[in-house]
Write a structure and sequence with these properties.
alpha/beta; TIM Barrel; Immunoglobulin-like
């Protein structure tokens, strides 16, 4: 009886198996692609295929103005973010996030000494370099590798921006941090913004969004008054909380790792997409970034302008209520320059006197803060001549 029962079970099992429809794995499984995210510069191309090379896919770009497709090749057209959808013959689909951007790193003394030539040769277009952190102890809190990193990047044609790590808990302290950052910069030329790095968890646990926004705005105003472009860096969640009207004018640099695209929905120009990247020229891990726009160099940041010389260095410190006289001498132009400051509430031009082919420009410190002195020739943009800190 047991043998007969076993035989019947086997017959039914075989019949059931034969009756089941059979499909290849390529039809029932998900469609896997060789990449789920691709970074390209405008003009660069990369291939996208199904991981199973026996499966052919058709590619479609959600925005051909950013990334175009031809057969299995994706080509960067203009800066931005879009998606490409791959469709198999059996109807399965999968998407790949496309980032048409410059490729960069951000570094500090934690990364040690960097071989910037190697980074350039490996496709690094820009670097955001830490100036320092806080403001209480300048000798200690200035990043020990800032000068070496800045010089190395510039010497290799890598565009440079900076960031300053904040511990501020008040507007006054944020302003002091900005002034400290400017003193470290010492009038150096930048291609990218000066970023206010607000990411310390204790700040977000102690202060309200309104308080942090006010500090970030104060830092950025101080930076822009000195002639630089300013921005704000933080994680995607924190930066979402800081998507306030008073910060809308400043660039955003968002950090969000291990994803194909940042979850921050506000406008942003730079995405820090990895903190665990390796590259020839640096020991250990580096932070990697995409920048989705070109930063033109404002005329006032030109470090090579030689239309006028000055008897004063690139930076100057003054006390509120005091006056100082610059001697500016045009190099070859016969037109008359005009002079101004970035913030008359901090520093104003009191008088301009022509003397023996030069101009004596008297400025008076009217309030605490940091701003710059500019010269302008007719038909030209203003050129920053000196960063002035008033205490």
């Amino acid at each position: 009886m047991r043998k007969k029962l076993l035989s019947l079970i086997l017959v039914f099992a075989m019949a059931f198996t034969v009756a089941l429809p059979t499909y290849a794995d390529t039809a029932t499984g998900s469609l896997a692609l060789t990449s789920t995210t691709i970074g390209l510069k405008p003009g660069e191309s990369a291939g996208l295929f199904a991981e199973d090379n026996s499966v052919a896919v058709t590619l479609t770009s959600a925005n051909p103005a950013i990334a175009s497709v031809s057969d299995n090749m994706i080509t960067g057209v203009s800066f931005g973010r879009t998606t490409v959808t791959a469709t198999a013959a059996d109807g399965r689909t999968a998407t790949c996030d496309i980032h048409v951007a410059y490729k960069g790193v951000d570094v500090s003394s934690h990364n040690g000494k960097i071989a910037w030539t190697d980074l350039k040769n490996n496709g690094v277009d820009f670097a955001i370099i830490r100036t320092g952190y806080g403001d209480e102890l300048p000798a200690v809190q200035t990043d020990s590798q800032f000068v070496a990193n800045y010089n190395g990047a510039v010497a290799n044609g890598i565009k440079v921006g900076v960031y300053h790590y904040s511990y501020a808990t008040s507007v006054a302290q944020a302003i002091r941090e900005a002034q400290f950052c400017l003193s470290i910069l010492n009038n150096r030329h930048l291609d990218y913004p000066v970023f206010y790095d607000v990411e310390d968890k204790s700040i977000f646990s102690k202060l309200t969004t309104a308080q942090i926004s006010a500090m970030a705005a104060a830092f950025c105003r101080t930076i822009t008054n000195a002639g630089y472009r300013a921005g704000i860096y933080s994680g995607a969640r924190y930066l979402t909380n800081l998507n306030t009207p008073e910060l809308s004018a400043y660039d955003k640099w968002v950090a969000h790792y291990d994803v194909d695209s940042a979850s921050y929905t506000g406008p942003y120009s730079i995405w820090q997409f990895s903190s665990k990247g390796g590259i020839a020229g640096a020991n250990g891990n580096l932070d990697f970034d995409y920048c989705y726009q070109t930063y033109p160099l404002p005329a006032q940041q030109s470090a090579s302008d030689s239309s006028m010389t000055s008897d004063t260095g690139a930076t100057l410190s003054m006390k509120k209520g005091k006056s100082y006289t610059f001697k500016f001498t045009p190099s070859s132009t016969s037109s008359t320059p005009s002079f101004s400051t970035g913030n008359s509430k901090v520093l104003k031009v009191s008088s301009v006197t022509k003397w023996k082919g030069s101009y004596l420009v008297k400025v008076t410190a009217t309030g605490k803060g940091c701003t710059s002195v500019y010269s302008t020739f007719k038909g030209q943009q203003a050129v920053r001549r000196c960063v002035v800190t008033v205490s």
